């Protein structure tokens, strides 16, 4: 009896010691946004389940990009998990800079990840980052202003309808702009928006031989339409407005419509919005006769840099943070409207989540986005609002600066397109694509 | 002969000085005010200047989310350490250039300053790789050395200017009285140049405190100073301006207080030798 007790005690002690020996402290680099900050608040839950501690390095999006890119390309080993996007993941995966996530546990249910997200975060069929939350873009509009204008927003509007509705809702006397759209320079800001707008007019960045296509009529039509729409019904200084500026305008009741990321839906219907009770949602628009819509696809995802000494603990964290259980944890504590959206199919089958006003439109928008087939004509690249090649970020930032200069009236649309054509071809030639 | 200043002119000058001072200080004032607003009030248009419900909520959130003490301590160690190390290197260098100049002194001074003209990002990868090799990534020691090297040209230039104002005859007299080189620098030169050294120290401390390229790129958890603390509250997707303002206010408060306390010394040092 005494012996069996002693054996039990020794077994328990050894298990505790093994557990303690395996407990790690992992360092995670991440961005500052509502969902990520919320996750940091629940770190104790992860520690209680696994024994692993977590150190967070939270940085602004652009700083984070530069920081993690420097670290991964030099094998600095500063982070065990990096928060990266859909742009970086396939490129870094192809370079073997990331640990493949092909051995996640059965309980994790990798097949539950939305197909669009899984494809966008994979290279050659191998998943390299797990989506924490995903987004597309959609129309957010003021239902009260639409009603007053005697219009009804279709589920799938055209750009022509958007213009008509903007004209009807625009009211300078009341400081209401018909429509608010991004114009700010930067590949992830106005550059992303004008690229998807281009897609919805049938434009593309490159033909099959990597020749720039800014000299084609589709780009001219897209840019002319955008500039004319915003000059007539957009806010003053729209050339410098990005996501935050438009969110601020919309929340103060100064926009009839806003076309932007689906994650904005929880902000415009949240406590800080003065129009929370009067917001409707629709699919991103397209030009009449063009089958592709102006909806993008993006995910903030968690990836493990190759070479980390704490791969097992890092995988445990990723499984915890992007699991169904985590979604349920957030729902139980903060309500279904606050769970990370756009990552798992099962979320959209949850009856409670289906009651969230923007849930279905978010799912429809994500499902309508196809990164391998972003526009009407064939393209040699993957990506909707970006082109998944390393040269894109720098090149697209320059192009978007030229476009923003055209929005601000510093040059004509034709001049901006000619410069975009020259910049792009020059970069592609130097990089050996042409 | 000094020109008499009329009371009216004095009033205008004072008013003008206050107006310019307020204009320069306004962004900081606005940041401080915003830190006491709600997120909705922070983005209100037209902006609310004073008529809002003051709240400490943002400070509460920031204190709960971040380990402010750790960031503050890192800032103090990095800025203070690099300043002290910089002075240890710069005082002898400036002494030699001011009192034992060679034909190349001016060229060397200009060459030192030219290193400031190189964009930092141009040497990010070499420095990063060097830090990996030396095991200095995310270490305060590494940051102290980098900050010192970045600011060294300015420290040498400033000290050189101050030392040039000190008559060489005084040092010569000390030497004739049997003072060694060490004694000459420590007991004669340094006390005479105290205002200049103090203002150099303060300026270097402020520059190191505010530096936000190397401190963000070479740190992660252990050595991250207050610049990283601010960066963690900036977000392009979400309106967190009030919290960002609270974090910014907390980051600049120590250096602002230090500046206020030592402004007399700073002004005296910066104008040292301006009027003969």
TrEMBL record, chain A:
Going by the UniProt record, its keywords in alphabetical order are: Signal
User: Which locations, inside or outside the cell, does it occupy?
Assistant: Periplasm
Q: Does the keyword Signal apply?
A: yes
* InterPro entries the record matches: Bact_solute-bd_prot1, SBP
CDD domains (UniProt xref): PBP2_TMBP_like
Q: Where is the signal peptide?
A: 1-23
Q: Which Pfam families match?
A: SBP_bac_1
Q: What is its main location?
A: periplasm
Q: Which GO terms describe its cellular component?
A: periplasmic space
Q: Which family does it belong to?
A: Belongs to the bacterial solute-binding protein 1 family.
Protein name (record): Sugar ABC transporter substrate-binding protein
Give the species: Marivita cryptomonadis
TrEMBL record, chain B:
* Segments crossing the lipid bilayer: 12-33, 71-96, 108-131, 143-163, 184-207, 213-233, 240-261
A Pfam family this chain is assigned to = BPD_transp_1
* Residue intervals of the ABC transmembrane type-1 domain: 72-262
InterPro entries reported in the protein's UniProt record: BP-dep_ABC_trans_perm, MetI-like, MetI-like_sf
**Taking the first listed entry, what is the main subcellular location of this protein, grouped into a coarse class?**
membrane
Tell me the Gene Ontology biological-process terms attached to this UniProt entry: transmembrane transport
Looking up Gene3D superfamilies in the UniProt record yields: MetI-like
Family annotation (CDD domains): TM_PBP2 (cd06261)
Give GO cellular component annotations, separated by semicolons.
plasma membrane
Keyword terms: Cell membrane, Membrane, Transmembrane, Transmembrane helix, Transport
Q: How does it sit in the membrane?
A: Multi-pass membrane protein
User: Highest taxon of the source?
Assistant: Bacteria
Where is the protein localized?
Answer: Cell membrane
Describe the family membership recorded for this protein in Swiss-Prot or TrEMBL: Belongs to the binding-protein-dependent transport system permease family.
Official protein name in the record? Carbohydrate ABC transporter permease
């Amino acid at each position: 009896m005494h012996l069996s007790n002693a054996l039990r005690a020794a077994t328990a002690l050894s298990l505790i010691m093994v557990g303690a020996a395996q407990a790690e402290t992992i360092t995670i680099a991440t961005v500052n946004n509502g969902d990520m900050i919320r996750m940091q608040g629940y770190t104790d839950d992860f520690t209680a389940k696994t024994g692993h501690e977590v150190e967070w390095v939270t940085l602004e999006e652009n700083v984070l990009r530069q920081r993690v890119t420097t670290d991964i390309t030099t094998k600095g080993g500063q982070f065990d998990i990096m928060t990266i996007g859909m742009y970086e993941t396939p490129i870094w995966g192809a370079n073997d800079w990331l640990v493949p996530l092909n051995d996640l546990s059965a309980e994790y249910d990798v097949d539950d990840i939305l197909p669009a997200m899984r494809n966008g975060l994979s290279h050659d069929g191998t998943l390299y980052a797990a989506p924490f939350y995903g987004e597309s873009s959609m129309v957010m509009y003021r239902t009260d202003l639409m009603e007053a204008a005697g219009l009804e927003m279709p589920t799938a509007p055209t750009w022509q309808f958007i213009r008509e509705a903007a004209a009807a809702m625009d009211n300078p006397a009341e400081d209401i702009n018909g429509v608010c759209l991004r114009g700010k320079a930067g590949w992830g800001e106005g550059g992303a928006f004008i690229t998807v707008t281009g897609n919805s007019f049938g434009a593309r960045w490159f033909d099959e031989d990597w020749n720039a296509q800014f000299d084609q009529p589709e780009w001219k039509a897209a840019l002319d339409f955008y500039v004319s729409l915003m000059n007539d019904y957009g806010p003053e200084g729209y050339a410098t407005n990005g996501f935050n500026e438009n969110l601020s305008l919309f929340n103060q009741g100064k926009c009839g419509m806003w076309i932007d990321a689906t994650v904005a839906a929880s902000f415009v219907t949240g406590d800080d919005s003065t129009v929370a009770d009067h917001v409707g949602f629709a699919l991103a628009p397209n030009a009449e006769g063009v089958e592709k819509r102006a909806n993008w696809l993006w995910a903030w995802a968690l990836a493990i840099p190759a070479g980390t000494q704490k791969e097992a603990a890092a995988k445990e964290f990723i499984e915890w943070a992007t699991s169904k259980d985590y979604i349920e944890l957030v729902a139980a504590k903060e309500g279904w409207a606050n769970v990370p959206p756009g990552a798992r199919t099962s979320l959209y089958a949850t009856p409670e989540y289906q009651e969230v006003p923007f849930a279905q439109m978010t799912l429809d928008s994500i499902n309508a986005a196809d990164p391998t087939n972003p526009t009407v004509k064939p393209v040699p690249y993957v990506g909707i609002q970006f082109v998944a090649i390393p040269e894109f970020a720098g090149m697209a930032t320059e192009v978007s600066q030229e476009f923003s200069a055209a929005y601000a009236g510093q040059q004509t649309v034709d001049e901006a397109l000619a410069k975009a054509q020259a910049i792009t071809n020059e970069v592609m030639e130097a990089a050996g694509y042409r | 002969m000094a020109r008499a200043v009329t009371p009216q002119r004095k009033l205008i000058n004072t008013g003008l000085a206050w107006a310019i001072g307020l204009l320069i200080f306004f962004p900081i004032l606005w940041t401080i005010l915003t830190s006491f607003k709600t997120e909705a009030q922070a983005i209100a248009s037209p902006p609310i200047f004073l008529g809002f419900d003051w709240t400490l909520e943002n400070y509460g959130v920031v204190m709960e989310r971040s380990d402010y003490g750790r960031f503050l301590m890192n800032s103090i160690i990095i800025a203070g350490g690099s300043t002290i190390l910089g002075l240890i290197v710069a005082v002898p260098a400036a002494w030699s250039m001011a009192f034992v100049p060679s034909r190349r002194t001016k060229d060397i001074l200009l060459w030192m300053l030219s290193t400031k003209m190189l964009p930092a990002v141009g040497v990010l990868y070499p420095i990063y790789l060097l830090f990996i090799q030396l095991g200095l990534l995310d270490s305060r020691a590494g940051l102290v050395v980098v900050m010192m090297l970045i600011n060294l040209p300015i420290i040498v230039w400033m000290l050189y200017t101050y030392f040039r104002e000190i008559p060489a005859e005084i040092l010569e007299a000390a030497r004739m009285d049997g003072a060694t080189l060490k004694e000459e620098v420590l007991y004669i030169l340094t006390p005479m140049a105290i205002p200049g050294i103090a203002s150099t120290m303060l300026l270097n401390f402020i520059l190191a405190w505010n530096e936000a390229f190397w401190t963000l790129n070479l740190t992660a958890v252990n050595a991250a100073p207050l610049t990283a603390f601010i960066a963690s509250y900036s977000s392009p997707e979400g309106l967190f301006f009030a919290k960002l303002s609270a974090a910014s206010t907390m980051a600049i408060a120590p250096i602002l207080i230090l500046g206020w306390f030592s402004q007399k010394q700073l002004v005296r040092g910066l104008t040292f030798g301006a009027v003969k």
